[in-house]
């Protein structure tokens, strides 16, 4: 919640078992696992479970994948987000590095994976809040299918993605294939991930994860 104190370390991107399922998802994604239909999904606040699929709307056709290029900035016009992107690897525990906790306005990209816009599934992570205020992905779960995400790439303009799925997945029974596997083989896809559900002060973690799925539909300046 805005301006509400968290316990020390509160608002961390993922802890404990959440990191374990993220690594499993990366393992599956790296082998071109297919997730099939994305399942029940819908816009929800960070403190709610997914509330069902929104009314149908036509989505644009996929654009052919682009060449590799480093991501520099993530823009989500509907949420007013223009966030710098930092490349990360794995931390000492073997989990993908989130952005530094002292940089809550920064988005992390898993650099050992796919570059946003290239064929495959690119993975970006961000904090939902800090100990005292909202962070970059605080309103991520309010996105709806059809809305635009832009990734400004090094020297090549922007890759433009269209949201096709928003899910709030509880940690119990988490389905890594559903969350991180490609929705359609051969497309350039993007996953944005943050915490969701409720914050448990005793475990210093959230009860769920928000996963926004999008696919490449165009390019821009």
Describe this structure in words.
With 221 residues, the protein is mainly beta. The chain has helices at 17-30, 176-180, and strands at residues 71-76, 81-88, 107-110, 120-125, 148-153, 157-170, 188-200, 205-220. The chain has a single domain (17-220), classed as Beta Barrel (Sortase, Chain: A). Helix content is 9%, strand content 33%. Strands 1-2-3-4-7-8-6-5 form an eight-stranded mixed barrel. Strand 7 (188-200) and strand 8 form a beta hairpin. Residues 1-12, 14-21 and 27-55 have low confidence and may be disordered. Pfam families: Sortase (PF04203). InterPro entries: Sortase (IPR005754), Sortase_dom-sf (IPR023365), Sortase_F (IPR042001). Residues 40-52 have a biased composition (Low complexity). It comes from Streptomyces ziwulingensis.
